[in-house]
Amino acid sequence: MELFVLLASFILFLVLGASVASAMIVSAVLSLLVNGLPMTIMAERVLSGINSYTLLAVPFFIFAAVIMNRGGLTDRLLEVARCFVGHFRGGTAQVDVLASIFFAGMSGSATADAASQGRILIPHMKKEGYDASFAAGVNSASATIGAIIPPSITMVIYGSVTNISVGALFLAGIIPGLLVGLALMAMVTFLSARRGYPRQPYMPWKDRWRPIWTAFPALLAPVIILGGIFTGATTPTEAGVIACVYGLLLGFFVYRELKVKDIMPLLAETVEATAVPVYIIGAGSVFGFALTMSGFGFMVQDMMTGLVEGPTAFLLVVIIIFMLVGLFVEGTAAMLIFVPVFMPLVQQFGIDQLQFAIIVIITLLIGTITPPVGLQLFIAADIAKLSVFKVDIWPFVAIMLVVVLAIVFLPGLVTWLPGVIM
Fold first, then answer.
1. pLDDT (0 to 100) of residue 415
2. Is the CB of residue 223 less than 8 Å from the CB of residue 243?
3. For the chain, is the Cβ count within 10 Å smaller at the N or the C terminus?
């Protein structure tokens, strides 16, 4: 009865247009009432869900992303990317993907990546003759790299939920993130050749040094941030603070695009952006408790044990589940709901936890670029002035799924680097 009330009310509120977090809280409250439990449990679960030192890294990395967007780092990284791939087929779209790889090493936010690069590159692509649907598709897909290559806000949240080392998750994401970037560039090349999209003039090496030198301080940011984490000198939270300080130094004294009057708007934007994931995490903690009380975890585990017979089949079923869930539920919420349920099965099948984590993270990120609720897709579609259903996203979804399947069958893509360094 409790499980029926919980799931039925959750789905009902989603259908009525409530946010995922609000639907989780209200349905959890109804379930607790049916169980006869006191409402003080809800407050306790919300606070315990967000009371984490690891989660302190989230607002710092969001602040760092905001600083870098406003402080001139994004523009200079785009110029460096243009130097190297602008002359490829579909040059401006290639710039979008490569710049996402650069930006990923500093911000850890797919949303910030989609918004900052999209405002610059989508209008450029449209002027150069690219279809608006393609421009929005490549921008939203490339933005996911920001949450795969470290530092990653998504990995910080995953680590806080599962107690897996965030540093190990960061290392595990490097090779898959680069593979996603290369796969997207290959798809851009293929589609651009078929559709006749332009390339930019080849830039001689003697002309590349100036933009590279100008962007050199920005390019050092990933080295400083990740170097501290991987050497053990800093925790991910401390690295987030360093990212903020370094971004402010560049914005004020090197690129001189920040003024003292900009600090309050930057902080306000950070608080607003931080509120969303924190609200979802708190709501997910209450909802997860209600699921546990209703026996949902045991039911799913029994069903999966009877459905699959080995680790590969289990991972393939997990990918299908998260793909379907990602169509309708925000990625962080889906992670909070399902990952704790699946973790006992991960251990039962002997699957490496880092392999499972990266598979889940990339699959959920695919959900952020698929209609009807994909956040990165909404951002890119809004910039391109399109409906989300008209964005040419499915070729990029397909190529990202190829990378996910490669990780299923070649776990060393995830586990090799952490095994060497840690």
1. 94
2. no
3. N
And the tokens for 335?
């992670």
* pLDDT in the model for residue 93: 93
User: For residue range 287-304, what is the model confidence (pLDDT) as tens digits?
Assistant: 888 887 878 777 888 888
What are the average pLDDT values for consecutive 10-residue runs of the chain, which has 422 residues? 79 82 86 78 81 83 85 83 89 92 80 82 91 94 92 89 90 95 96 91 84 87 85 86 90 89 91 86 85 79 80 93 85 86 90 96 92 84 89 94 96 92 73
Q: Which amino acid is at 324?
A: L
**Cα dihedral 401, 405, 410, 415 sign:** positive
Token couple for 25: 């809280």
Q: Furthest-apart CA pair in the chain: how many Å?
A: 74
Q: What is the 3-state secondary structure (H, E, C) of the chain?
A: CHHHHHHHHHHHHHHCCCCHHHHHHHHHHHHHHHHCCCCHHHHHHHHHHHCCCHHHHHHHHHHHHHHHHHCCHHHHHHHHHHHHHCCCCCHHHHHHHHHHHHHHCCCCCHHHHHHHHHHHHHHHHHHCCCCHHHHHHHHHHHHHHHHCCCCCHHHHHHHHHHCCCHHHHHHHHHHHHHHHHHHHHHHHHHHHHHHCCCCCCCCCHHHHHHHHHHHHHHHHHHHHHHHHHHCCCCCHHHHHHHHHHHHHHHHHHHCCCCCHHHHHHHHHHHHHHHHHHHHHHHHHHHHHHHHHHHCHHHHHHHHHHHHCCCHHHHHHHHHHHHHHHHCCCCHHHHHHHHHHHHHHHHHHCCCCHHHHHHHHHHHHHHHCCCCCCCHHHHHHHHHHCCCHHHCCCHHHHHHHHHHHHHHHHCCHHHHHHHHHHC
Q: What is the pTM of this model?
A: 0.90
Give pLDDT, residue 133. 94
